[in-house]
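As a representative case, we now present a protein record of this kind.
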Amino acid sequence: MNKLYLVVPCYNEQEVLPETSKRLLKKVSDLIVENRISPESRIVFVDDGSKDDTWNIIEGLHGQNPVFQGIKLSRNKGHQNALLAGLMTVKEHCDTAISLDADLQDDTDAIDEMLLRYEEGCEVVYGVRSSRKTDSFFKKSTALLFYKLMSCMGVETVYNHADYRLMSKRALESMEKFSEVNLFLRGIVPLIGFKSTTVSYKREKRFAGESKYPLKKMLSFAWDGITSFSVKPIKMISFVGALSLFAGICMLLTLFVLFLCGREFGDKIFYTALACAFFGFQFLSTGIVGEYIGKTYMESKHRPRYIIETYLK
């Protein structure tokens, strides 16, 4: 029988954890009663270096019911690393693992359909938002821009999918082979290549607490995704650079012809603007290339992506 592990990354989630644990326990218990999953299935909370009472709550849940397990990272490593830590830890014990957020925005009823798709032979099942009615206009617009930009850059992602997904044991073992430090799991999982499908669900408003992905983090996350999976920005720089060089040569030839014809030309403001544009492009190009070099430098160190301090089995 399918031994299912739910993996839930947590960072400062003391306000929502009591309700989250209650709902997830009910879902797991119902599935066990229906013989959909094994009685040895578990709910694993991964504490990503929380500064509040999150870990104490996880310890309390574990003491009350063995279905709850806890993984405590030695320090805050970010959502993607915390999620990976949980998935790589449970892959030895589970047949399938479903990752979801602790804020109760992911509809737990979608788990039933995910399991059904797994039983039909899919090894990766993506939870996809059916709409963005709960988002502000700004968030909707930036999300659409993000997916469009990722697509233009050649990065394969699933539209309106975050990190709510089911993965089989074989898919998890395959994902372990991806060793990059700059994690973007939404781009890594599609590269595994096993049979996959999507399940639509309605994403609710956050039950309690504050979002752990403000605008600054979202921009950083998007930038990591682009630079970790695509070299198109470098190719674009080369193209724009060649175009700028061609335009510059044409302008110089034009000025030379005007000079031979005895016509007056030139304006200090024009040349100053041209110089600023040229040097501005150079600095921008250097910054983008430097970003890639920096990521290569970080990858070459082979530092651990996370360190587990405590594992409550």
The chain is about 50% helix and 15% strand. Residues 232-301 form one domain. The mean pLDDT is 81.
